[in-house]
Protein 1
Amino acid sequence: MSSDPKVKTIAVLGGTGREGSGLVLRWAQGGYRVLIGSRDAARAVAKAGELNAVIGEDVIRGLDNVDAAREADMVVLAVPYAAHEDILRSVADVVQGKILVDVTVPIQPPAIRTVYVPEGNAASLEAQALLGDGVRVVAAFHNVSASHLPDLAQGVNCDVLVCSDDADAKNEVFQLVEAIAGTRAVDAGPLANAVAVEALTPVLMYISKRYKVAGAGIRITGLE
Amino acid sequence: MSSDPKVKTIAVLGGTGREGSGLVLRWAQGGYRVLIGSRDAARAVAKAGELNAVIGEDVIRGLDNVDAAREADMVVLAVPYAAHEDILRSVADVVQGKILVDVTVPIQPPAIRTVYVPEGNAASLEAQALLGDGVRVVAAFHNVSASHLPDLAQGVNCDVLVCSDDADAKNEVFQLVEAIAGTRAVDAGPLANAVAVEALTPVLMYISKRYKVAGAGIRITGLE
């Protein structure tokens, strides 16, 4: 990795989706160059134009997933679980040597408020197994509700639990967390601990519906 | 169940342990009659005497696990995961028709700060499968650190996520949560969602060690 601690270009694969586009917007606002990746490059270009208009600056570009992943310093994966494996296979070569931040939540629609444990226990563990040791997989941002990301005037009231087997990669992702106002990065341990972080998302979706709130999040207590 | 909404007698199997004895103390203080269950009745009797002295009242009794479970209106299981299945088998007959609150966290020592996904995905799902439909299993209290329970002068800064497939059983357990000052009960959905709640505990133990704090907990945001 570069000796500059701040990643310059982030690709968000699945950046046309609700969670992905919200993250794109926050990071673009935070001073990063952001690439939106999509299976359909035209859709990525359209979404980039839309989000640049919100920011009032031309810092977001749209590409297909593979080109976006190839150009970026750091790659963020925010895709439906059903597409997770296929998209990982398509970018496996171009993400070697990079950090891959996996935001994917393993759910089985229509039961989106019920925890689903995938074969590899966590989407991010499956990503690490598929990509091999040449890629440092970090699990993060799963618990930040998409409903809170688009309103740039509002901070996000949620801690971001960050899991990885690579301490340096965790530290680099901490900077991406700091770029989203209101959040706090918490080192949540090895990648195996992503099981808890991923599984918490359908629980938060259940809680949001049950208590009729816009997007429940979490805070770790006892750190103050 | 009785038409009286408040359970009168709670058995805590594993009530001689750190988490179990802390819960015993809080519930005894909250006005419940509490039975400590242990594989060794003499140890349960000794621990009951010790905790009654703390409370300054004679509301806790020690018994072996089976007798404690038989006598109680509601049974709480707070045992090491390695003993979970054996103890469940030993009380399976006497808990039929009752609520069983499973506090067990599936960990594999010595890796107590790393999530371990058991064969049945969650200890409480394994309990429900083993006990059958005649027992209403509720998962709760996993994230309340044992280190905060003994000091009765201090509230516990933690939400208690409660999962079950039975809505009435969840409501009865909500009352046990209210008896512990500082906590807040949150309906976290069906028992399948206990995967997240159980897995969060080794993550909180990791965070506590990593940030050198006494016992990290969680709060759900967005409900206020």
Protein 2
Amino acid sequence: MEPMMLRLGHEIQFEIPAPVAIVALLNVHPSRAADLRAPDEVQVEPALSIKTFLDSFGNRCTRFLAPKGTLRLRNETLIHDSGQADPVAIDAREVPVQELPIDVLRYLYNSRYCEVDRFSMIAVELFGSAKPGWSRVQAICDWVHTHVTFGYQYARPTKTALDVYTERFGVCRDFQHLAVTLCRALNIPARYVTGYLGDIGVPVSPSPMDFSAWFEVYLEDRWWTFDARYNEPRVGRVLMATGRDASDVALTTSFGMANLTHFTVICEQVTTPAVATAI
Amino acid sequence: MEPMMLRLGHEIQFEIPAPVAIVALLNVHPSRAADLRAPDEVQVEPALSIKTFLDSFGNRCTRFLAPKGTLRLRNETLIHDSGQADPVAIDAREVPVQELPIDVLRYLYNSRYCEVDRFSMIAVELFGSAKPGWSRVQAICDWVHTHVTFGYQYARPTKTALDVYTERFGVCRDFQHLAVTLCRALNIPARYVTGYLGDIGVPVSPSPMDFSAWFEVYLEDRWWTFDARYNEPRVGRVLMATGRDASDVALTTSFGMANLTHFTVICEQVTTPAVATAI
Amino acid sequence: MEPMMLRLGHEIQFEIPAPVAIVALLNVHPSRAADLRAPDEVQVEPALSIKTFLDSFGNRCTRFLAPKGTLRLRNETLIHDSGQADPVAIDAREVPVQELPIDVLRYLYNSRYCEVDRFSMIAVELFGSAKPGWSRVQAICDWVHTHVTFGYQYARPTKTALDVYTERFGVCRDFQHLAVTLCRALNIPARYVTGYLGDIGVPVSPSPMDFSAWFEVYLEDRWWTFDARYNEPRVGRVLMATGRDASDVALTTSFGMANLTHFTVICEQVTTPAVATAI
Amino acid sequence: MEPMMLRLGHEIQFEIPAPVAIVALLNVHPSRAADLRAPDEVQVEPALSIKTFLDSFGNRCTRFLAPKGTLRLRNETLIHDSGQADPVAIDAREVPVQELPIDVLRYLYNSRYCEVDRFSMIAVELFGSAKPGWSRVQAICDWVHTHVTFGYQYARPTKTALDVYTERFGVCRDFQHLAVTLCRALNIPARYVTGYLGDIGVPVSPSPMDFSAWFEVYLEDRWWTFDARYNEPRVGRVLMATGRDASDVALTTSFGMANLTHFTVICEQVTTPAVATAI
């Protein structure tokens, strides 16, 4: 597709029964900063003192103390997108662990929802004889995509890759957790991603829009986008945050009670690069 | 006790059936660099090209490709120690999440062996009414120390904090994982530590020496040492590595088969600061 | 309340993609046979050769091979009910294991959703000092009722007592599994029950009717009804099946694919003991 | 081999800190009663009032209240054995669920250590295309035997089939739990067995003798012996108890503290059918 402009944003509302600290990852990832065509600032109501920072994974975060009452988080911006689908590089090779960049190593380890230690033999049995490199990662995506059934009713906060592997039902995050874990169990660095993924170049989904999850794999000399949920190259992904798994990149983490009462997300192509408007 | 000199080191041997990448954390932590009185360099036999680096937690690491055959890792050094037991600061307060230093935040989250999300209610029920701050952390240590029974036969690589909570048996690492998880579930930053802990000022243990695990908690304005296994201030801890849990700070992580055939650790007081000798 | 007549029944429909064996527990329990005022026979459409039998727990079961296509199971009957609420006997004592009737012993053991072995210490810590007997069981019900939040969205087929204990959300069956497990961990025999529970003498629930789950505890010299979900004596329970846990007493167990497409349950007081009519 | 006489027995000692009820399964199974050539009575010291009974699975059980102090359980008997190895019937067919004898059905369900519900897809993926009947069960045994490594250090009381499947280490009971679960997930009835298995016709094991576990599968018209641990027909198995899994057939179940201090088992061929003597 042609280069395009995307309008994206969200509006999230909580009822807060008592003051509570919140960390939010509601900005576009620094790697896309140059593509922004409008400010990308989280607006918090009521007005609060907020702190913005980069976390240990390099994601843009916002921290604040939410007072008792209604809390509204909003952000809407415009971003330029290449219009290119996720690149495919079927010759990209696996990098031996001893040659990986140092900062990539941590994506080989266990994490809360990715029990690499419980998948070592399963991963080898399923994919040990697949052709190393891109093909092997694609085989993992194909397997997860085929063997797991999507359904919003199967979401739960504590579901791990092993749960997904035995239950075979899940949401976006569950597909990616299982694929990430299988990659790591084969010594292929993999990290979890959250971001915007509009229905660009595909039929519009009847469900309300939500944030999406996909994952990245380090092959050859860089990170590549994979998505065990949709399992086809897509146009218009906008990366927000990467981490070891969903626990690292929750859109909002509340350190106490916060009841979600409203939630909308948009991500759509705009033909005229209009001024961002309220959603 | 008086300031003292500690001789410490290890010798670890593997049989390697096929070339395998290994990452090792076998150095003293950078925070203790100024105390070293002899070189602290991992010796690898056979001689290999090794890469040393700091990981994302700030630990000194070594990476190399081990060839087929016998692999021997050794390190022995001398370190000056204050002779002071772990400090106690019963007035140290809990820091509200919105005031924590940014780089401390990640120690509030879930990790592989610390399922914070499954302990939120349990932690509140057990310790929600304890006096916040040092007293609460001490109450957690007391509880874990009293309710979990130590035994080497209870070690297993996949044991999580929830397993420890239900089984009530474990080794060092299990005690600390449970305590760390309970702290985090109460929004108190806690991180896992591995290091040397000799029998200094306490009766000599009849078991062969091993590396030890303890944990650190962020209170007031710094990290403090706690140990749910021994649960008393000790002299002569030498920190090697900190991380979210044992998965982050394994002494050696092999990305393939490596069969441990020999393992010795020493950590003892030396009256004359002698030249380091072979163990 | 006065003695009364209850009309109860269900209609369940499946789409069967390929012939599949089904075992159903859709009759009133033999212990209530004398109260029946109309036939209690499962009607299967299409007409099939069915086998009825008592399982190892004494429940009335039906087994058949469902052909490809639509399968409809219906049953409707009339039963006389005492109108009395669940009896309360606050002096009922716990029976020492060595004095329990032999056929009660099996309700002390582990089962799929009741991991008694993982609750031994937790149960003692929570209820070890409660007054033995009825009071202790009531304390368990009170705790589960208070600490677990009901919601249909929290149902899942593999959820165990330990999951309920950590997640604190669930449906009927989850409340009872946790309470059953805590009882057994204290050497109090407890078994899982499914049956009809209409809104008799209580406000009518806005949700569509469903089968209900409760549990029974052996104290003094008999089994007593408890219900950690509602946690108050109720009128009009009609027992269908008892077992170790939900796995033993599923309304229908399909040994292959069977997609549920329709499901209604009724249980209501009828003033005139009318002839049973279609629902 | 020729018909033979086996001498078998055990001596188990506990230290009991406070009176505790115990249920023991320390007799030969009723199905072997006709082969007994000496009394098969559990001797309890001190002398206690004991109750013997058949449990719901048909096993001979003993129940008593053990007083504070040392408890010794002994039994030694002689049994005639055919000398025939476990029969092999490669044409034995799987029985469709709708044709299974009623009392066999319960061995299709979930139990504590056999999470059939978490293996439905895994079992189909691994063995769905294997030839039904004996061959499929043998394929399961071969797989478990090959993919799981034996080691006493891997035993733990709470280990389930799923744990064995992911960890790939275990003792007898773990091999059988995994094989039993895979069978049930394919709708093949399977039950867990404990009994004596001497080193008859095979090299004598250097380890002290222990009770053994194997499993039985219902094919064609009867139960057949399988053993995923040794995975070869053996001579001289003496069945003691069958159940859904190890939880049902523990040699001793203590309803409170009982510390095992001594444990010996014998099972050996005797050339002269001697009078049973003390072990």
Protein 3
Amino acid sequence: MALTIRAIRPDDDDDLWNLLEPVIRAGETYALARTLTRDQALRYWTGADRETFVAEVGGRVVGTYYLKANQAGGGSHVANCGYVSAQDQTGKGIARAMCTHSLAAARERGFRAMQFNLVVSTNTRAVALWKSFGFEVVGQLPRAFQHPVHGEVDAFVMYRLL
Amino acid sequence: MALTIRAIRPDDDDDLWNLLEPVIRAGETYALARTLTRDQALRYWTGADRETFVAEVGGRVVGTYYLKANQAGGGSHVANCGYVSAQDQTGKGIARAMCTHSLAAARERGFRAMQFNLVVSTNTRAVALWKSFGFEVVGQLPRAFQHPVHGEVDAFVMYRLL
């Protein structure tokens, strides 16, 4: 079935939380407090400083991502994104579709580069995916992420020009 | 004269703005909008997510820095700081004193590393200073900063364990 990506609507909140909750509670890939409430999580993910999208397949929301400026002022031409896919839909190309969409959206908005600030080194699937999109590991942060299973692990800064 | 460093008080706002305004307006070292108002700048520099300090010499505020967690959740053991010294006081060791103070303050609060996310590569004085404190360039972000004089220049991610 075709995957479509669209801007969020107010009635997406339940679907967004269904996607975000397991990722936040696991605490293995995003530097977000595992104790965030639904409201805090939605406020973060759909904040006024970003655009938020959902990916749908057959009317079901199966993924979400946000696009924002990574920094203000002299850093505002560099975009930043975060992506979450439904955990029962891994391997179906949802993250790939969202990344493709986000790179085009970032270019349309005039961004000239995209940066991921903290890619957890144990998240090998994500690292491989971003590399396939031309992102490079431009930095390695020693022991910068406390992984609930693996303890302190390195994180990567990934970056590509647009 | 002795330099002392203390937590900010409400009546420091004028002194803080006097330090921040030229740095923000110049736009050469911090990724902050050059158009920030006084209120916006003070809200940023003294936000609830950080501790802010001033350095005084003979009763005059000659520098300020903040200390905060660089990320939430699994990244919350890594500190982040920003430092500003009075422009007519360069070379007097104010930044050095603030960096020393911040490393001790970060350790006291249980942080296990410190990260600077965007050190503008043309800010060679700062890069050399942080290196002298054991920070390493762990990442290089191509063209990540729009310098008002030099155009798009690289930025560094600098990092050290505590």
Protein 4
Amino acid sequence: MTDTSSPQDTRTLYLEDIAVGDRFVSGEHALDAEQIKSFASQFDPQPFHLDEAAGQDSLFGGLAASGWHTAAITMKLFVAAMPIAKGLIGAGVELTWPKPTRAEDVLHVESTVTEITPSRSRPGRAMVTVETLTLNQHGEPRQRLVSRMVMFARGAD
Amino acid sequence: MTDTSSPQDTRTLYLEDIAVGDRFVSGEHALDAEQIKSFASQFDPQPFHLDEAAGQDSLFGGLAASGWHTAAITMKLFVAAMPIAKGLIGAGVELTWPKPTRAEDVLHVESTVTEITPSRSRPGRAMVTVETLTLNQHGEPRQRLVSRMVMFARGAD
């Protein structure tokens, strides 16, 4: 088990470099109201993502980032923290947002390898499950992401 | 069962307006290489999302949109097609990307209500499960999204 706390890991990770329990901690992304509104106006133009007063009147009780914005920032932090050989290509994911992401949040992600399933048909290839928590500066979780991704051994096709 | 094919539905949907099997079909979003690279440079800066030649050399066999970009475009189309009262607030989602999204894709989404589970503790409130397929102009699926969302009856808190 390795605790890898470098926000920008410059290695390239192959299958033999990881084990269940390995943890990758990213750098930080400071959010603000302008980013929240800009993303929302392009992709999730609902009042509580666009306007403070509308946010106050909503279930969120204040301006909240789109969950898809939190997911996109998570990916940015994750690709820098866990540089997988041939790239991070997700087969499928599950996402939950336990609490809304706010304009004052400074986000980072903590990813843990939870399962490694070698391919039966293709040697040197495995499906790797990673749980990624997106946390703010107070350690409060904003998103939980479980991803399944293909990883390759050195020299595999 | 209602087939609602208006790309911009101007109604506001309450719990009593929907039933299992109801379907919502969105308008279209035409993608291009510039949008793919712009999103990727902000949120998923991997070579196969940023450069055609790098895409050719990758598992994708060509420039491919980030799955998170496909997800974000899906949300834009979905919020216009299924205007839920008090907003579309996802409790949790599952996502798979059966094939990469390409620069020449013109995307639309087709959402089907698959389950309605009334809240036991809060009358007039239910957890609604919706399956949303994101398809290109040839009907080829690019993403499957299953979302669980809160919906409210008229007059509920």
